[in-house]
């Protein structure tokens, strides 16, 4: 799977940018999506207009950790992996028996967006299994990304020459667009357009970038670690009227 988001939609963390990195513009002329399609036959590319691009393929997928894609109303979601507590989550979100993992993620996000009772970190923490997902809400131009706490699914992110955010389960695809400005997506974390990167295992703690160094001694993006001494200000979802949108406040 592949997602490239314009920097106006999802701002890349500064720690991902390496000082010397041979990056390109991943969005210009559909460069990275075209490369993805050439590497993965039968790919489907979804143009998100000025917000970016999504792409997915069933080529060479792990049958134990399948890739799924769905669109519900204005919400687009790429999912890879397997959720173990599907039955419980279907009941929690009032979904029918036919709902699969990607539909569960969309409904979980929609519950948050429409001011549901749970904070975002709890919603992701409630998902048990091996997973990574990329969600884009075109009605609010918001993103919601997450990976499980054990890094059970390959998932990488990086920043291109223009500061756009690139995500994929294919490390070589991210390298193509981001050069050395990339890293594995932090396990046990989620990212939103408005709130940036947060740990859902330690939601009250800040995350700090730790530079990665490759075999040649060059800085290659950063790993983000929980800072046990730096705590975030507690900020639940503000209750300011039924028209308020979670995605713009978290």
**Radius of gyration, in angstroms, nearest whole number:** 17 Å
Helix content: 10-25%
CATH architecture: 4-Layer Sandwich
Distance between the termini: 26 Å
Q: How many domains would you count in the coordinates?
A: 1
Percent in strands = 25-35%
Number of strands: 14
Q: Quote the average pLDDT.
A: 89
CATH topology term: Glutamine Phosphoribosylpyrophosphate, subunit 1, domain 1
Largest sheet: 6 strands, antiparallel
- Output the helix-strand order: EHEEEEHHHEEEEHEEEEE
Shape: globular
CATH superfamily membership: Aminohydrolase, N-terminal nucleophile (Ntn) domain
Strand order in space, largest sheet: 2-3-1-9-8-10
Regions with little confidence, pLDDT below 50 for 5+ residues: 234-243
Put simply, the count of helices is: 5
**CATH C-level category:** Alpha Beta
- Helix/sheet category: alpha+beta
């Amino acid at each position: 799977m592949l997602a490239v988001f314009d920097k106006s939609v999802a701002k890349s963390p500064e720690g991902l940018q390496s000082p010397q990195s041979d990056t390109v513009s991943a969005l210009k002329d559909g460069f990275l999506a075209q490369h993805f399609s050439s590497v993965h036959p039968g790919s489907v590319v979804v143009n998100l207009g000025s917000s970016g691009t999504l792409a997915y393929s069933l080529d060479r997928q792990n049958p134990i950790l399948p890739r799924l894609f769905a669109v519900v109303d204005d919400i687009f979601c790429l999912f890879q992996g397997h959720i173990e507590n599907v039955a419980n989550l279907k009941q929690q979100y009032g979904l029918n028996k036919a709902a699969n993992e990607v539909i569960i993620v969309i409904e979980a996000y929609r519950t948050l967006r429409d001011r549901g009772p749970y904070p975002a970190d709890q919603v992701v923490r409630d998902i048990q299994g091996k997973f990574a997902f990329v969600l884009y809400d075109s009605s609010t131009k918001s993103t919601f990304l997450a990976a499980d706490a054990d890094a059970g699914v390959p998932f990488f992110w990086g920043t291109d020459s223009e500061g756009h955010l690139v995500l994929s389960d294919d490390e070589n695809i991210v390298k193509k667009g981001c050069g050395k400005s990339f890293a594995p997506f932090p396990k046990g974390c989620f990212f939103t357009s408005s709130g940036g990167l947060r740990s859902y295992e330690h939601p009250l703690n800040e995350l700090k970038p730790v530079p990665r160094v490759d075999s040649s001694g060059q800085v290659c993006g950063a790993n983000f670690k929980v800072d046990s001494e730096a705590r975030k200000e507690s900020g639940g979802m503000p209750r300011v009227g039924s028209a308020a949108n979670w995605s713009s406040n978290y």
